[in-house]
Amino acid sequence: MSAQDVLVLAEIRGETLDAVTLELLAAARGLVSATGGNVGVIVLGRDGAGHASSMGAADRIIVFDDPQLSTYAPETYVAALGELLAAERPRALLIGATSIGWDVAPLVAARLDAPLVIGCIRIMDGEGDLRVTASFYGGKMLAECRVTGAPAILMVQPGSFRPASEPGKAEIEIRTLAAPLQPGAIAFEQWILPQAGDVDITQHDVLVAIGRGIQQKDNVELAESLAQALGGAVCASRPVVDQGWLPATRQVGKSGMTVKPKLYFALGISGAPEHQEGMKGADLVIAVNTDPKAPIFDVAHYGAELDILDLLPALTEAIEAKRG
Amino acid sequence: MNIAVVVRQVPDLIEPLEIAPCGTAIDLDAASFILNESDDHALEQALLLKEAGGGTVTVVALDSGDVDNTLYTAAAKGADALIKISQQDHAPRSPRTAAARYAEAVKPLGADLVLVGVQAHDELDGALPPFLAAAMGLPYVGVIRGVRAATETGAVIVCKEFPGAVMAQVRVKLPAILGILGADQPPRYVPVSRIRAAMKSAQLSECEAAAPQREPLVSVVRLVPPAPAARAEMLSGSEAEVAARIADILSAKGLVK
Fold first, then answer.
1. Do B124 and A142 touch (CB under 8 A)?
2. What is the pLDDT of residues A222-237, one digit of tens each?
C-alpha cells in the first residue's frame, strides 16, 4: 500500500455487480496511471471471488467477509471502511452516488474528518493535489475543485466513466476487523419489489416522459394520448412520481428505471444528471422545455423551446394524421 | 413521537443562475430562493407521523433568504414550534459548519426523530443530514421514501429506495436521523390566508449560532456552466409547425405506424 493508492467501494446487490463499480474502477485506474499506486476494490459482506474476474482493473480485492456486513447497514459499513482507511491512508476512496453511497460517503468523511466531493464526473492528478470536476446545482453548473487532504472521499456520478472491462487477475485479500462489528440501530428487514400489473416501461420502444412541466395531474392524460398514438407508454421524472401522479414503476432515472427505447420524448423535464442516468441509452431523444438552457437539450437529438401543454395536443393530432 | 425537521433554502433552479465575479460561486444576490424540495417532503413526512400517532413537530432553519415565510408556512401546515438560527457571520461556507449549527439547536430538543431532506442541489463538499447525524452522535440512514411507526415503541420502519423501483424495508431504533427523499404523500398545500394567520399566531423562537465557521476542505477553483456535448437540433416555429416537423421526423424513422 502507498499514499498514491486509490480504493473503490464495490456494490453487489443479490448476485449482481452494480455497473457503477466498474465505472469507479475506470476512474481509479485513470488516476493511478498518472501517479503510480495500486487500485483496490473493497467488497463488504461476501467472499468476492465470484466477481474477481469482472474486476480485473483492480490490483487487489479487499474482502471483509463478516456476517454483520451480509446485509447493508450504514453503521457497520462505515465502521469497516473507517478502520480500513485509517490503517491504509489511501489517496482517495471512490464511492458511487447510489442509495448506499449517499449514506456511506458523507458518514465516512465525517468520521475521518476527510474532504468529500459529491457528484464527481472527472478526477485527475493536479501536481500533488486532486483536481475534481463535479456536477453542481442540479447539473446547471460544473465546479472545478482542488482537494488537498487524504483520503479524499469522492462520490462519483454514475455514467461519468466508461466501465473498466479489462481482464485481469486481482489478488484477493481477506481482512478481519480489529473489533467485532455489533448490530446497530439500523437493520435491514426485507426487499420490497415493485407491484406487478403496471406497465413495464423497460420493455417499450416508445416512451413519453413527463416532468414538472406537466404542472398538474389532470394534464397527464395529454401525454397518455400521445403515447397511445405512438403505441408507447408514459413515464416520468421524479417530481411527477413524488406528487403521486404516476406510480414509482414509471420513474426513469437514478432511483427509478433505466430505459433504452427507440424513441424517448422528454417533455417538461429539465434533465438533471439523475434523470439522464436512466435515459441516455435511448436511440432518439426529443426534448421540449420552455427553458432553452435546460440540460436535457444537451443529450437530446431534437429540441423545441415550447410549453408542452400547448404542444401536446398539436403533436398528438399530427401523429394521428400521419397514421391516417 | 417528537420530531424535529431541518429545512434549508436553496436557489430556485427555474431562474437562471449567474456566476459571481469571483468565478467560484454563483451570485446569491441575483438568485431567488425556495424551500429545498426534499426538506418539504421531510416536513410532510413529519406531519403525517404526528397525525397518525401524536407528538410534536418542531421545524428548524438557519436564517437565510425568506426563511421566516418558510417557517410560518410550516406552522400553517401543522408544525407546533419554529426555531430560527441567527448567524452573526456569513452563511456557512461548508455543510460541516451548517451541521454544527443545526446540531446546537436540535440537540436540546431531545427529539425522537430528526428528518432532513436527503440532499440539496447547492451542497458540493458535504451532505447535511449525515453530517448532522455525526455532529449529534445519532445513527443515520437516507434515501428514504416513507416512514411509519413500528409496532413496538422506540422504532420506525422506513423504505429505502434502490434502482428499479425496489425498496429495502429497514427498522430504525430511535433516536435517529433520516434523510428523506419523498414522503408517503405529496407535500400539502396551504392557502396564503392560513400562512398569514400563522404569522400572527405562531411563535417563532430564535437562537444564535455559536459554532465557528469551518474552512471548507475542498476549494472551488472555477465554476462554469457545462459545455453541451452535442446540443440538440432546435426546432422552431409555432406549436403546429413544430408538431408537424416532429411527426415528419418520426415518420421518416419508421416510428409512426
1. no
2. 999 999 999 999 999 9
| DSSP-based three-state secondary structure for A9 | strand
What ranges in chain A are assigned the alpha helix state H? 19-35, 74-88, 99-112, 220-230, 238-242, 273-279, 308-323
Nearest CA in chain B to A207: B255
Could you tell me the strand order of the sheet in which B113-117 lies? A186-192, B166-173, B155-162, B140-149, B176-182, B113-117, B2-7, B56-62, B81-86, B204-208
User: What CATH superfamily is the domain A201-323?
Assistant: TPP-binding domain (3.40.50.1220)
List pLDDT tens digits, range B33-56.
999 999 999 999 999 999 999 999
Given a contact cutoff of 8 angstroms between Cβ atoms, the answer to whether A112 and A170 are in contact is: no
What is the separation, in whole angstroms, between the first and last Cα of chain B?
A: 57
With pLDDT > 90 as the criterion, what percentage of chain A qualifies?
A: 65
Q: Is the pLDDT of residue A249 over 90?
A: no
**Phi, psi at residue A245, to the nearest 5°?**
-85, -25
The 10s digit of each residue's pLDDT in A149-171 is: 899 999 999 888 988 877 777 88
Residue type, A147: V
Q: How confident is the model at residue A197 (pLDDT cuts 50, 70, 90)?
A: low
Domain positions in chain A? 6-174, 201-323
Q: Could you give the CA distance from residue A194 to residue A149 in angstroms, rounded to a whole number?
A: 42
Amino acid A138: pLDDT: 86
Q: Evaluate whether the domain defined by B2-208 bears CATH number 3.30.530.20.
A: no
pLDDT of residue A31: 94
Checking if the pLDDT of A123 tops 80, the result is: yes
* CATH code that applies to domain A6-174: 3.40.50.620
Q: Do A186 and B172 touch (CB under 8 A)?
A: yes
Cβ-Cβ contacts under 8 Å, B256 against chain A: 230, 319, 322-323
Residue A112, pLDDT score = 95
The answer to whether residue B251 neighbours chain A at the CB level (below 8 Å) is yes
**DSSP class of B78:** T
**What secondary structure, in 3-state letters, does A293-313 show?**
CCHHHHCCCEEECCCHHHHHH
Q: What are the domain boundaries of chain B?
A: 2-208
Q: Please tell me if residue A116 touches chain B, with a CB cutoff of 8 Å.
A: yes
Q: Using DSSP, state whether B196 is helix, strand or coil.
A: helix
Read off the C-alpha cell for B194. 392560513
| Separation between Cα atoms, residue A115 and residue A123, nearest integer Å | 14
Render the burial of A204-215: b for 16+ CB within 10 Å, e for the rest: bbbbbbbbbbbe
* B168·A230 Cβ contact <8 A: no
Is the pLDDT assigned to residue B58 strictly greater than 80?
yes
